[in-house]
Amino acid sequence: MVCTATYSQKGAKLCDYYKEYIWGEIFIPAHQEYVWEQLLVDIALFNSVGIYDEERFAIENQIWIRELNARLDSFLQSVPSEHHYHLMVFLTGGHPLSRNDQMSNFFTKYLRHNRGGFVTYTLRPTFSTRVLHHMSEKGWGAFNGQFGLTKMYNSNTIASLHDQYWCHVQLDFETHFFGGTWDLEVGRPNVGLWQTMLARCNP
């Protein structure tokens, strides 16, 4: 397996260590090594798609993307769930052992601001976060951790933000409308995912 980023000499040692660790029994069973290698190749292809080519790529490769989602899901079922997040970071080209902000592995832009009377979290997801559901899931976890949502808001507010987030995921995946940001607004009612989708993510 080849490291997907350039590191300093100290970082290279970390990367070598993690390669040995990631190939251990804890992370990847021997019979899944080929599957893992293929996932690295396929998701590197995602990472190479330019922002203006994402829509065309998604439309032309719908069947392959659905198959890749299924393959990623099957692979993760063979690995303990506590390692899923680190594996997703590694697949995005990030370094799982890094203490740096992990949001950048899933989003190219993220900020908290006030817009139209709402506290708004604006996220611009990477292509893989838009269309690979496990990346979307780990992106939500990174977002939650980055902004400390569970410490700031009650369960209704978090549920509303969660439904707005997944509404954007579903709409992007089904309509291939890429390039826009996901704007999650505090204060929107908690009406459930279906009603949130009917309201185009702004109930």
Structure description:
The chain folds into 2 domains: 83 residues, no CATH class; 96 residues, no CATH class. Helices cover 55% and strands 11% of the residues. The protein is built from 10 helices and 3 strands. A 3-stranded antiparallel β-sheet has the order 1-2-3. α2 packs across α4. It is globular and about 50 Å long. The N terminus is likely disordered.
| Percent helix range | 40-55%
Coarse shape: globular
Tally of DSSP β-strands: 3
Structural class: mainly alpha
Low-confidence stretches are 1-26
Q: How many structural domains can be distinguished in the coordinates? A: 2
Major sheet, described briefly? 3 strands, antiparallel
> Proportion of β residues?
5-15%
What strand line-up does the widest sheet have? 1-2-3
Q: How many distinct helices?
A: 10
Instruction: Please give the alpha-carbon distance between the first and last residues.
Output: 46 Å
Helix and strand element order? HHHHHEEHHHHEH
Rg for CA atoms: 18 Å
- The pLDDT mean sits at 81
What distinguishing features does this structure have?
disordered N terminus, three-stranded antiparallel sheet, globular, 203 residues, 3 strands, mainly alpha
Set out the fold topology:
Elements: H1 9-22, H2 33-48, H3 54-60, H4 62-76, H5 84-91, E1 107-115, E2 118-125, H6 127-131, H7 133-147, H8 149-152, H9 155-175, E3 182-186, H10 193-198
Antiparallel strand pairs: 1-2, 2-3
Summarize the structure.
By secondary structure, the protein is mainly alpha-helical.
